[in-house]
Specification:
The structure is a single chain. With 249 residues, the chain is mainly beta. The chain has two helices and 23 strands. The strands form six sheets. The protein has a six-stranded antiparallel sheet, with no helix packed on it. It has a five-stranded antiparallel sheet with strand order 1-8-3-6-9, with no helix packed on it. The protein starts with a strand and ends in an 8-residue tail after the last helix. Bound molecules: manganese (II) ion. Manganese (II) ion binds next to β2.
């Protein structure tokens, strides 16, 4: 169900001061995870807020929303390091035109699992790890974890074999299944040939793990609209041009 994964990072505020001015979405969810810095967000359904280190915003565009995303004002003034990830999650065909909504998943609302023997910890955003469930409600079965591992420690993870699974190294470096090394900013994509994998941290590490059941539905996309047919895309463009996505300054 994962359409796009964008990691953005910079220590230079000129790189992020512009932000993302108002733009529409239909047919997808956008999930923003802040690792460093502070991001502010507003949308045409009245949702919005500031997300800071460890916070997550989960926006369901559904039938159509306008939103804008930019550095939080004081953070922008002061400058500092920004690191964030935006993930586009596809909506099943039957839910593409659902009512827009917004889940503000504050760091303290995420389900924190401490791993024994000083291995590290997991912040569960969605899905479950050893019976611990994350707070995000999703339209198709999927898992999204931030995993923090201490240097030299390892953990194993298990997901359905038919789910599409991968991980992004946010910080540090890892060895996967005792074979494959992956440094920061690298993405590891697993094949659908087994359930379990192991990750060992070669230094203090943060990784983002994502795993989800494939939707297996046709995709028609045009910029920020992701639907199932070209006719639906044309409708999205017409609806946007006639102001049906609402209004945002
Ligand atoms: Mn957007």
């Amino acid at each position: 169900p994962f359409l796009m994964l964008d990691e953005f990072g910079s220590e230079n505020k000129d790189d992020y001061i512009g932000g993302f001015p108002p733009h529409p979405h239909r047919g997808i969810e956008t999930v923003t995870i802040a690792y460093k810095g502070r991001v502010e967000h507003h949308d045409s359904s009245g949702g919005g807020g500031i997300i800071a280190e460890g916070d997550v915003q989960w926006m369901t565009s559904g039938s159509g929303i306008l939103h804008k995303e930019y550095h939080e004002k004081n953070f922008g003034k002061k400058g500092g390091e920004m690191q964030m990830v935006q993930l586009w999650v596809n909506l099943p065909a039957k839910d593409k035109m659902t009512t827009p909504k917004y889940q503000n998943l504050n760091k303290n609302n995420l389900t924190k699992v401490e791993l024994e023997n000083n291995v590290g910890s997991i912040d569960i955003i969605a899905g479950e790890f050893e019976k611990n469930k994350g707070p995000a409600s999703t339209f198709s079965p999927l898992s999204l974890f931030n995993v923090h591992l201490n240097k030299g420690k390892g953990a194993s993870f298990s997901f359905d074999k038919n789910h599409n699974t991968g991980l992004l190294v946010i910080k540090g470096s890892i060895t996967v299944n005792n074979i494959e090394k992956a440094p920061a900013n690298h993405f590891v994509l697993f094949e659908n040939d087994g359930k379990e994998f192991t990750v060992r941290a070669d230094e203090d590490t943060t990784i983002l793990i994502l795993s989800g059941e494939p939707l297996d539905e046709p995709i028609a996309s045009y910029g920020p609209f992701v639907m199932n047919t070209n006719k639906e895309i044309k409708q999205a463009i017409d609806d946007f041009n006639s102001g049906k996505f609402g209004y945002l300054d």
